[in-house]
Design the sequence.
DNA sequence: GGCGATCGTTACGCAAGCGTTTCTTTTGTG
DNA sequence: CACAAAAGAAACGCTTGCGTAACGATCGCC
């Protein structure tokens, strides 16, 4: 079920959502952090640092740092993989799910207003 | 003409666009910068530092800095207002318009894929 | 003409992100 | 058992953004 948008709608939607998010949330996640967060919550686990780095086309420290920041904010959690203790498995949190749920509502509402 | 999205479509669209943008563009504008850029290009001029600050709910130095950065990238331009020389009028550029046009295409294409 | 208000910028100290490189732990394999 | 490979984190120097506070230029108005 594709979503058909005109150029004006596409940018207008992004505009309205960005604007509202800036006004509402002082956290101001970077685009990279947002991409990581959405990847974790929308794609079936497990997620690893290495996997995310490959998926986004960035280096591993970028992922580590983003997880540090978002972990401190309670949006994600890290657990050592007991089957291969070199790996770290990234876990979702209730707070993170809530955050994205509200963000999704924001998108939906701004979309309706177009 | 509203855009009706399911929660899954809303977050899925944001996910796909963020991901692609991260992979394609090393510039990595912050959400604030993106909101400012879209405001300048989608809302009829004139735009001033003060006006943008009020619209986004941020302080003036935030706007000044964003304009510094995006100006250096050629995405916007600044011109002194000759009618009231205290004001600075923010101008669009060809490069900025092109940048947003490509970004809009990205949104449209990712929307179709949902 | 003086003077308070307004506009945008700059300065300051600080926090956070970056890329590269190095380190630590753990694995698998000869 | 030794040792190279792999995963993630930490260290390093640097750049960029932040909020607050101060600043210079310009205006409106009496």
Sequence:
């Amino acid at each position: 079920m594709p979503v058909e948008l005109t150029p004006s709608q596409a940018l207008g939607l992004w505009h309205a959502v960005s604007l509202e998010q800036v006004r509402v949330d002082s956290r101001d996640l970077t685009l990279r952090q947002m991409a990581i967060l959405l990847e974790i919550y929308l794609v079936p686990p497990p997620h690893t640092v290495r996997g995310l780095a490959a998926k986004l086309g960035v280096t591993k420290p970028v992922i580590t740092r983003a997880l540090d920041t978002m972990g401190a904010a309670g949006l994600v959690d890290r657990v050592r993989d007991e089957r291969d203790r070199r790996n770290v498995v990234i876990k979702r949190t209730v707070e993170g799910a809530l955050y994205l749920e509200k963000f999704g509502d924001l998108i939906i509402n701004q979309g309706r207003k177009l």
Notes: Residues 28, 48-50, 60-61, 63-64, 68, 84-88 of chain A lie near DNA strand D (CB under 10 Å from a C1'). Chain A has a mean pLDDT of 94. Strands of chain A lie at 76-80, 88-92.
